[in-house]
Design brief:
- By secondary structure, the chain is of the alpha+beta class.
- 40% of the residues lie in helices and 20% in strands.
- It folds into three domains: 2-285, no CATH class; 295-407, no CATH class; 416-472, Arc Repressor Mutant, subunit A, CATH 1.10.10.
- The longest helix has 20 residues, at 218-237.
- It is elongated.
- The protein binds zinc ion.
- The site of zinc ion has 8 residues, from loops.
């Protein structure tokens, strides 16, 4: 048996105002402080489309090679829900803004292109609150109601849970590069539903699908898909039938819970939204947006390997997020050494972010400061050990690399007289080891290097020390 998976991803657009009114979209503000008659669905209030929503959709269209419709239509999707007071959601149905795109993902067997059937604009609902503050009642917050979403529907070309999470990660990377969505799965600004079915391997006919909702992390997406595939195969192998339904993923119980059975688009009685004119997009508009596109992850990665001679792995890590790639390139402007800078950014900087759980923009170690440290390292004023020491110091207290270097006396010594003294002293203090070395125990070199570095308080240049040491031990 094989699985057939299609993903429907909703991304919340980070436009300043909502899709059809001028209410703000700030996350986490006091309940019901960002509402107006339009997004509350008051009778007679008329929606007006926010141009920024279309700009953002065009950006994603260009980045996914989608066909951008000259004319698309808004439709009403009718359903009753307490946090959608109008009784319908403004969406797009048979004439969406974008169609026939694609997204390339990395799999164990190399690159794979996943088709994107369509991307359409729609509005978000409010939020129901079932917390203990509301006994025998439900709290309703309409701050989110009317916020712009893009729904991205993939072709059923995903075969495994790993491919599904790779697709999600690629999409998240892309929308963050485009700065149209913050990609936060936990806060719900990116939400994923999966349509899952199974069939005999190689068969062309689709099995009955189950839609799984409520997976708010990559881990849950993988777990839910694996669970549902295994469940369906078991049902079929036992001679049973799959019932078409919508199910919720329950992360505590690690299983899918049936929510409602059989639901088709005709249940929603879609019809064209009479309050909005058709959306017309001409070539000029598209060209304007094309000019604002940043260098996309794939192109940037290729440039890093081609022009900066970084490995595939290094380029992948550094371009994983736009801010990281920007940080790397700003540092590189000062340090001028791609390999060294790549090592420090993918090593020390990422370690620091992880340890302090902070964002790049919050770091005290700015690209300018890191660039200066790396320059000191390249010009032999610092050795690697002390460069890392200064890096850690700045990460905690700010300050300037050269200042710390001078204050702490960390400047590397290239003075041969000074080096000779340190080496001679260490040899005199350890006569037995010196004898053993001379009689062939050459692995003691590390022991001497350690002692000499300690004596120099890390200031000695390791290459010069090695030279002087070996000379004296002849
Ligand atoms: Zn409003």
């Amino acid at each position: 048996m094989e699985a057939v998976i299609g993903l429907e991803v909703h991304i919340q657009l980070s436009t300043k105002t909502k899709a059809f009114c001028s209410c703000k979209t700030t996350y986490g503000n006091e309940e019901n402080t960002q509402t107006c008659p339009v997004c509350l669905g008051m009778p007679g209030a008329l929606p007006v489309l926010n141009k920024e929503v279309v700009d953002f959709a065009i950006k994603l269209g260009l980045a996914t090679n989608s066909k951008i419709a000259e004319k698309s239509i808004f439709s009403r999707k009718n359903y009753f829900y307490p946090d959608l007071t109008k009784g319908y959601q403004i969406s797009q149905y048979d004439k969406p803004i974008l169609e026939n795109g694609k997204l390339e993902i990395e799999t164990e067997n190399g690159l794979k292109s996943i088709g994107i059937t369509r991307i359409h604009i729609e509005e978000d609902t409010g939020k129901s609150n079932h917390s203990e503050n509301f006994v025998n009642s439900t709290g309703l917050d309409f701050n989110r109601c009317g916020t712009a979403l893009l729904e991205i529907v993939s072709e059923p070309e995903i075969k495994t849970s790993k491919e599904a999470s790779a697709y999600l990660a690629k999409l998240r990377q892309l929308v963050r590069y485009l700065e149209i969505c913050d990609g936060n799965l936990e806060e719900g600004s990116m939400r994923c539903d999966a349509n899952i079915s199974v069939r005999e391997t190689g068969s062309k006919k689709f099995g009955t699908r189950v839609e799984v909702k409520n997976m708010n992390s990559y881990k849950n997406v993988e777990k839910a898909i694996d669970y549902e595939i295994a469940r369906q195969i078991k049902v079929l192998e036992n001679g049973g039938k799959i019932i078409q339904m919508t199910a919720l993923w329950n992360a505590d119980k690690n299983q899918t819970i049936p929510m409602r059975t059989k639901e088709d688009s005709q249940d929603y009685r879609y019809f064209p939204e009479p309050d909005l004119v058709p959306l017309l997009i001409d070539e000029n508009w598209i060209d304007e947006i094309r000019k604002t596109l940043p260098e996309l992850p794939k192109t940037r990665k290729e440039r890093f390997t081609r022009e900066l001679c970084l490995s595939d792995y290094e380029a992948n890590v550094l371009t994983s997020a736009k801010e990281l790639a920007d940080y790397f390139e700003k540092t590189l402007e000062i340090s001028k050494d791609p390999k060294l800078t790549a090592n420090f950014v993918s090593g020390e900087v990422l370690r620091l972010l992880k340890e302090t759980k902070s964002e790049l923009s919050e770091l005290k170690i700015t690209p300018e400061k890191l660039g200066k440290i790396l320059t000191l390292l390249q010009t032999n004023k610092l050795n690697l050990q002390n460069a890392k020491k200064i890096f850690d110091e700045i990460a905690q207290n700010g300050s300037e690399p050269e200042k710390i270097m001078r204050e702490k006396g960390l400047e590397q010594s290239l003075d041969t007289n000074e080096l000779e003294t340190w080496v001679s002293e260490v040899l005199a203090e350890n006569p037995n080891e010196a004898l053993r070395f001379k009689s062939g125990e050459t692995k003691l070199q590390a022991f001497f290097m350690g002692k000499i570095m300690q004596k120099s308080r890390g200031k000695a240049n390791a290459q010069l020390v090695t030279k002087v040491l070996l000379e004296k031990l002849k």
